[in-house]
Automatic annotation (TrEMBL):
GO terms for cellular component: cytosol. CDD domains: TIM. Belongs to the triosephosphate isomerase family. Keywords: Cytoplasm, Gluconeogenesis, Glycolysis, Isomerase. The lineage of its organism: Bacteria, Bacillati, Bacillota, Clostridia, Eubacteriales. Coiled coil: none annotated. Pathway: Carbohydrate degradation; glycolysis; D-glyceraldehyde 3-phosphate from glycerone phosphate: step 1/1; Carbohydrate biosynthesis; gluconeogenesis. It comes from Candidatus Flavonifractor merdigallinarum. It is found in: Cytoplasm. Transmembrane segments: none annotated. It catalyses: D-glyceraldehyde 3-phosphate = dihydroxyacetone phosphate. Its EC number is 5.3.1.1. InterPro entries: Aldolase_TIM, TIM_sf, Triosephosphate_isomerase. One of its GO terms (molecular function) is triose-phosphate isomerase activity. This is Triosephosphate isomerase.
Length: 264
């Protein structure tokens, strides 16, 4: 592993002032960490993006949008275009989050249009996929992940690691009542994801796409998860929303991924 990917989506919890305070403190607390080993990102609410851009050192922290429309412009009331995200300082577009799919009704086809649009405009598409508890219980997890990938990435030219990240977030592991997947279960699903990406894009491109695990990641399970062979990063929820706590989690992960002598 050359670099570890660590980030969070603050959902609809932090407004403008809270986001500014948070990103400023997070940058200050992690400024000493080598960014050639760490890709650190925060995905705040749309209203806080521009203020976060002005408050955070872009060399220390990447910003993203929690969703994105599939057109550069047009009669899409309430949507945010890729150009708007870029103007606000976002370089990442989070697409297909389980809440968008299962609460707000987004389909794989809609997600696919967004992925293609994001990559076309130079954003990193962070594609979120994951099975429900019922699908897991019926042994359909791998089939669901393969289908979400094949539909969500349909007609996408072989991407580089800067164009596409994939976050595996089992639906049953997300939220206050979520139960985190064991590191072994997460690793098996990541193996399936990697295998599918190689089938879609070839060995070279498919092997270089970063795979992140998200779903009730916390200081107790983060180190075990990141040590799995096919987990390249962690997409963290409420455990990351306190900057000092997130900073400690980041350091714990880096310590195990890159021993002290390699961090100098």
């Amino acid at each position: 592993m050359e670099k570890v990917y660590l980030g969070t989506n603050t959902k609809m919890y932090k407004g403008l002032a809270d986001t500014v305070s948070y990103v400023e403190e997070l940058c200050r607390l992690t400024a000493d960490l080598p960014r050639e080993k760490l890709e650190l990102f925060v995905i705040p609410s749309f209203i806080a993006l521009d203020a976060a851009r002005k408050s955070a050192d872009q060399k220390l922290l990447r910003l993203g949008g929690q969703n994105m429309g599939w057109a550069e412009e047009g009669p899409y009331t309430g949507e945010i275009s890729p150009r708007m995200l870029l103007e606000c300082g976002a370089t990442i577009a989070e697409l297909g989050h389980s809440e968008r799919r299962h609460v707000l009704g987004e389909t794989d086809e809609m997600v696919n249009r967004k992925v293609l649009c994001a990559v076309e405009h130079g954003l990193t598409a962070l594609l979120c996929i994951g099975e429900t508890a019922e699908e897991k219980e019926k042994g359909l997890a791998d089939e669901v992940l393969q289908m979400q990938l094949k539909r969500g990435l349909y007609q996408l030219p072989p991407p580089t690691g800067e164009q596409l990240w994939v976050a595996y977030e089992p639906v049953w592991a997300i939220g206050e009542q979520g139960v985190p997947a064991t590191k072994e279960y997460a690793e098996e699903r990541h193996r399936t994801i990697r295998r599918t990406l190689v089938q879609l894009f070839g060995e070279e491109r498919g092997a270089q796409i970063p795979l992140l695990y998200g779903g009730s990641v916390n200081p107790e399970n983060a180190v075990g998860l990141i040590q799995m062979e096919h987990i390249d990063g962690l997409f963290i929820g409420r455990s990351a929303w306190d900057a000092p706590r997130f900073s400690q989690l980041i350091r714990s992960v880096l310590d195990v991924c890159f021993p002290k002598e390699t961090m100098l």
